[in-house]
């Protein structure tokens, strides 16, 4: 069945004549913190079926020993490099202020109005590129390794609620406040602070322990009945739109609501928002696995590339 087929005709095949030689790193955190992206990718990789696991293994540079999560933060590290500057708007969506909705045609563009240049468009685009992997001819228009890393990263970003935020405050970046005793802003609270505080307070700063808790929640815990609906997807573009809409909905109800610039956020905010952060990381991972399994799985059951 050509589940997601027929959607790709319009996708702009952005010039992705990118080389794999430059997978270097530079410390910088934008998007889910490093930990958020690592957990998203570890969850996904553990859920891959054999064909997808093998394809991912083949696409990764040998120095990561088959560990996708080791490079899931790479798109944040290179987004300001001259060659990759075009990818910078692909990490987020600026929605209409206070609308609390996502509409692809209204909201998915960069600051110059260029269409499809947002995280929802990027997920479509890189999925589309990876569909050519199966053709086995090594389509030279695309760098499949980079497409895998971008897709894996952006599936994390679209699930970070404040990455689908309001335009004027840049997804909470301009809302400066304090997180407990230090200066922060609302965007960073959701990227990083909640995860860091959870790690420090409950997990002895051990990301593996936090990950075990998250995995326990969806395999045999509070979310185990929900997982099949999380990965339900008959039409990729409408699924992506739904995931973005979930994010702005959480951003409105739990991110922005009641928050004033200059205030201090502490225990109350942390305790009530932490479950949403953990759930979004789990959903991002489960859905990334779903997409990769579709891309690399049996062509009769998955979706196929546009010709
Ligand atoms: Zn990002």
UniProtKB/TrEMBL annotation:
Q: Which residues form the signal peptide?
A: 1-24
Answer yes or no on keyword Nucleotidyltransferase: no
GO BP annotations of the record are: DNA catabolic process
Major enzyme class? hydrolase
Q: Origin, by domain of life?
A: Eukaryota
Read off the CDD domains from this record. S1-P1_nuclease
Give the EC number(s) listed in the UniProt record. 3.1.30.1
Keywords, comma-separated and alphabetical: Disulfide bond, Endonuclease, Glycoprotein, Hydrolase, Metal-binding, Nuclease, Signal
Q: What is the reaction catalyzed?
A: Endonucleolytic cleavage to 5'-phosphomononucleotide and 5'-phosphooligonucleotide end-products
- A Pfam family of the record is S1-P1_nuclease
Gene Ontology MF: a single term:
RNA endonuclease activity
**PANTHER family according to UniProt:** ENDONUCLEASE 1 (PTHR33146:SF14), ENDONUCLEASE 4 (PTHR33146)
Family affiliation? Belongs to the nuclease type I family.
**What is its quaternary makeup?**
Monomer.
Q: What is this protein called?
A: Aspergillus nuclease S1
